[in-house]
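Risk register update: the risk of archive-format incompatibility is retired. Evidence:
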Amino acid sequence: LDDLKAGDYIVHKTHGIGIYKGLIRQKVENVEEDLMIIDYDDGRLYLPLYNINLINKYRSQEGFIPKIDKLGGKTWQRTKEKIRKRIYILAESLLKLYAERALKKGFSFSPDTELHREFDSFFPYEETHDQLDTIEDIKRDMESDKPMDRLICGDVGYGKTEIAMRAAFKAVYDGMQVAVLVPTTILCEQHYWTFKSRFSAFPVNIDYISRFKSKKEQKRILNELSIGNIDIIIGTHALLSKEVKFHKLGLLIIDEEHRFGVRQKERLKELKKDVDVLSMTATPIPRTLYMALSDIRDMSIIETPPEDRLAVKTIVSEFNKDLIKEAIKKELGRNGQVFFVHNIIKDIYQVADYLHNLVPDAKIGVAHGQMPEKELEKVMLDFYNGNINLLVSTSIIGSGLDIPTANTIIINMADKIGLANLYQLKGRVGRGNVKAFAYLLIPGEEVITDDAKKRLEAIQEMSYLGAGLRIAMKDLEIRGAGNLLGPEQSGHIKAVGVDLYIE
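Archived output:
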């Protein structure tokens, strides 16, 4: 009830979707009772509080407006029945897939040795309980003779990459190759440097393939990969092309699988047939859905923030040059770096000039998706290495970039960005033990839409750690379900709301 406010859509199991109007105290058979008022298309329902178990708050994709049902109407019953049938079909196909995998034999990796423990000990932080449990799950999967198919869900910056690297080490130790598939070129480069640095004390050959590489380099890499000279290859969807031949692929790691297209996913299925697969996502998945699916798909959830991690302070403000200047100077003053996100390419250079005039001593770089590959690569590397301390970019930086010294992000026109993207962008800062700040700039309260106001309120409320997995975030919750179950199911969820769908 605390979660409900007047005007919210609710779902009644018998009557369907209505609008909650608040509470009223009334006498019912000479007893004073609190009743919930729910408006329907053809009338009003007064629901005693002891029947609250019959309703859920309606949650669906942000901005989606559901159709209000009629009291006791047949349409609602038909909708429920149709979706129930579809869920049966889905469950059946998932079970079939699971049964096929269960009958398949995969490669059994050998148990850990002293060398594995040495690799693990090089991790410079204290692992969280969730991390350790997940690592144990993965190693057990890899040592069994069934092909692994595990999904790791964890908030941004909660240590999923470290887990993937330990799995990769286990595969390489047994002479198998590892492919790491990522959705963006920038993330590809980032993972390459992270893996290189983490494996530096061990004789492991790592390379990457993306549009940053010349045709000649790509040809050389593909040849080395096919004869087994490369142990770990990191790549964008270029890794899925038919020309890519592995010598002995044993493990496929997929980062943010839902961001790949239908054709790419079909190719993935071919690759997945008998290799171990580890997928990772930062998109929260509802706990209840997780429970419902955990018998069908192996999942590990990382909910614990790393030790010393501080929540990101979120400030929503109208565009204000003094605030921007102060925020940048404060970050540079502690030898940090700043992201300034401006999502319109055509005037991004003007914004960079404006910031240069505001903070002349900042070393500014610009990054966006339409730049020539080599130029974009150079800017990102310069920011990564600290030669640039203020990066003006589009939301191209929203995926997985990990720069511990970047602890201030300023997002211009934040009202135009969806909740999931805002959340991802905010996750670019506060990845170490330094207090981080996210400034969301808007043109003015009176100009922005109600939807945008709700988004900004939600992101401000999400200033505690792990909010991504704990808050019932409409947008992300639906995405989480959609990612696991496919786009058709997202439509069914819209029809009845996420809670009833899961039930």
